[in-house]
Write a structure and sequence with these properties.
The strands form two sheets. Strands 2, 4, 5, 6, 10, 11 and 12 form a seven-stranded mixed β-sheet that branches. Strands 1, 3, 7, 8 and 9 form a five-stranded antiparallel β-sheet that branches. A hairpin with a 4-residue loop joins strand 5 and strand 6. By secondary structure, the protein is mainly beta. Helix content is 0%, strand content 59%. It starts with a strand and ends with a strand. The chain is built from no helices and twelve strands.
Length: 119
């Protein structure tokens, strides 16, 4: 199992930037895919960005060129990855969830962090 804790959400004006962090603890050596999803008001949860242990990255078309997911940073107790969000738009508003996939165990989610972009 892993525990995921997000931080870094908040209120920002359109055109601004935020950096989200996801701190993972537990069976971090089993993590093979890390990612970020979001759920906007009245919308389904959607993939924003993901990265594999091998460094392969995937982005939603709507965020390409504006968002960047960082490679995982590991220490003895925690692994952390980040989502740098630049040139934010009001349509980026939503709850952002950290996600980790573990080999042979499946996926885990964080509790979510609110991002609000004002126009």
């Amino acid at each position: 199992q892993v525990q995921l804790v997000e931080s870094g959400g908040g209120l920002v004006q359109a055109g601004g930037s935020l950096r989200l962090s996801c701190a993972a603890s537990g069976s971090i050596s089993s993590i093979n895919i890390m990612g970020w999803y979001r759920q906007g008001p009245g919308k389904q949860r959607e993939l924003v960005a993901s990265i594999t242990n091998g460094g392969w990255k995937n982005y939603a078309d709507s965020v390409k060129g504006r968002f960047a997911i960082s490679p995982i940073s590991r220490d003895t107790a925690k692994s952390t990855w980040y989502l740098q969000m630049d040139s934010l738009k009001p349509e980026d508003t939503g709850v952002y969830y950290c996600y980790a996939n573990l080999r042979l165990q499946g996926g885990y989610w964080g509790q979510g962090t609110q991002v609000t972009v004002s126009s």
